[in-house]
User: What shape does this take?
Amino acid sequence: GAGVSQTPSNKVTEKGKYVELRCDPISGHTALYWYRQSLGQGPEFLIYFQGTGAADDSGLPNDRFFAVRPEGSVSTLKIQRTERGDSAVYLCASSSTGGATDTQYFGPGTRLTVL
Amino acid sequence: KQEVTQIPAALSVPEGENLVLNCSFTDSAIYNLQWFRQDPGKGLTSLLLIQSSQREQTSGRLNASLDKSSGRSTLYIAASQPGDSATYLCAVYNNNDMRFGAGTRLTVKP
Assistant: This one.
């Protein structure tokens, strides 16, 4: 079956602009996660959704970052007033129920470059 | 705060060698530990997941161990192949928060 997909695969924007990154999880997965991966580093947790609600948004770096999952499937990560330091690969993952025994399945990521 | 460290940062071996990748973490209160593989420009692929009550997991040529009390895990790769070349990441999971190490970049030379 289809895995986790993310669009766009690459996004180049200018400092100060607004961007939206999309994640399509595996069908039927209730848990969805966003991570950010800087060059040479492991992914860093941003936010976790259980269904439509953000169960844990403690990883969002500041209020310029926001994510939604209005119907419990597709999620959008929104970044306002982008800064050069936001440049990274943004990864999305989904799991069946979000439990500790669940494997997270990752998408290919969106590479964001802020000029 | 949970810190995850992977040693070495990079490793190059000739084809056929057995090798061990190391992962350590500072807080032993984890639900599970997972090893991932990441190819350049790609997402992460889960290799092995070890629950906190388990000591090891095996899949094919891969064997992962977990010593929760000492905060350590190892990933053993037997009879390495050029196709094993990738970055290997370990991650520990607790309360919806998965913390990753920076990874070990493995190169297996033909």
Chain B has a mean pLDDT of 94. DSSP finds no helices and eleven strands in chain B.
